[in-house]
């Protein structure tokens, strides 16, 4: 692995948690291993590891973008990651209110439902 891959894996584990990353790593095979390597290096090593904004701010941006694009599974994953990034539920609501204005009320409404369900699941465990 490259230095950027190592850096990316460390950030990925810090943000998403060891349990999630361990499951993802165990599930990868020859088909998706190159994809997993790319996102670890590019998303986590090149983008999430930058020091220009905080993990909290990056988390809010990611949540807004995922909600605006309708990427529900990734949205729930990043909502769960807020326990590691420092983004509060108020932060999430603010991000989703921006989604309503800039990406559409239906996307934000759906994302808010996902957030409520995800946060309830988090409280239950």
Sum up the structure in keywords:
globular, AhpD-like, 81% helix, peroxiredoxin activity, mainly alpha, 125 residues, 2 domains
Write up what this structure looks like.
The chain contains eight helices and no strands. It is an all-alpha fold and 125 residues long. The protein folds into two domains: 1-52, no CATH class; 53-125, Up-down Bundle (AhpD-like). Helix 5 packs across helix 8 (105-124). 26% of the residues are buried.
Shape designation: globular
Strand content: under 5%
Q: Count up the helices.
A: 8
Q: Kindly name the structural category.
A: mainly alpha
Low-pLDDT stretches: none
Q: Report the average pLDDT across residues.
A: 97
| First-to-last CA distance | 35 Å
Q: Which CATH class of the largest domain?
A: Mainly Alpha
* Number of individual domains: 2
CATH-derived topology of the largest domain: AhpD-like
Main β-sheet description: none
User: In CATH terms, what is the architecture of the largest domain?
Assistant: Up-down Bundle
Q: CATH superfamily of the largest domain, please?
A: AhpD-like
| E-strand count | 0
- Nearest-angstrom radius of gyration? 15 Å
Please estimate the helix content: over 70%
Order of helices and strands: HHHHHHHH
Pfam family, one: CMD
Domain Carboxymuconolactone decarboxylase-like: 34-116
GO molecular function: 4-carboxymuconolactone decarboxylase activity; peroxiredoxin activity
Keywords: Lyase
